[in-house]
Amino acid sequence: MRASVDKELCIGCGVCEAECPEVFRIADDGLAEAIEGELTEEVLEKAQEAKEQCPVEAITIE
After folding, report:
1. Among 5, 31, 32, 52, which residue carries the largest CB count within 10 Å?
2. Using an 8 Å Cβ cutoff, are 2 and 37 in contact?
3. CB burial class (10 A; 0-12, 13-18, 19+) of residue 10?
4. CATH fold label, 3-61
């Protein structure tokens, strides 16, 4: 599974980074981005929680 952030929806609130800094960070443009590559089992649950907490539903995990 991989995580991605829709930059057109993202408002840069930082909830995802706070919830799962192993996968998400706020980039230089002030918007969130996800690490590239497959999510490990260790971070998948936290990444899913970050997705659920996103106020604008900008995160996809597939």
Report:
1. 32
2. yes
3. buried
4. Alpha-Beta Plaits (3.30.70)
pTM of the model: 0.93
| Alpha-carbon distances, residue 54 vs 9, 39, 44, 48, 50 (angstroms) | 10, 18, 15, 10, 6
List, run by run, the mean pLDDT of 10-residue segments along the chain (62 residues): 98 98 97 96 96 98 96
Domain boundaries, the chain: 3-61
Secondary structure percentages of the chain, helix, strand, coil, to 5: 30, 20, 50
Reduced to 3 states, what is the DSSP secondary structure of residue 61? strand
